[in-house]
Design a protein that fits this description.
By secondary structure, this protein is mainly α. It contains three helices and no strands. The longest helix has 60 residues.
Length: 99
């Protein structure tokens, strides 16, 4: 029975974990920071923005390429199904003439 009394503690543990918002962008501007950025820091941030743009562009073209490949595979599958239907009908007519 002691296990059931601790159940409320376990349910509230995840709530404590997500109480503070997490900043996922390490280069996001701080509102409290009034210090000017160094030239190296500005260059690094510009480089990060450039690589993020290239990564997004790569994702976009990857999705387009994937969609084209899927459409091509569907067209090949439809072609295969039509070929099998025609081949089966020709095979059965040939077998009927032989018997």
């Amino acid at each position: 029975m002691a296990y059931f009394h601790r159940r409320e503690e376990h349910e509230s543990a995840p709530a404590r974990l997500f109480r503070e918002p997490v900043n996922l962008d390490p280069f996001e501007e701080d509102e409290d920071s009034d210090l000017p950025l160094t030239e190296e820091e500005e260059h690094r941030r510009a480089r990060v923005k450039h690589f993020r743009f290239l990564a997004s562009l790569g994702d976009f073209f990857g999705v387009i390429f994937g969609a084209v490949v899927i459409l091509l595979l569907i067209a090949l599958l439809i072609s295969l199904i039509h070929w099998v239907r025609n081949d089966m009908s020709q095979s059965f007519t040939l077998l009927q003439h032989l018997w």
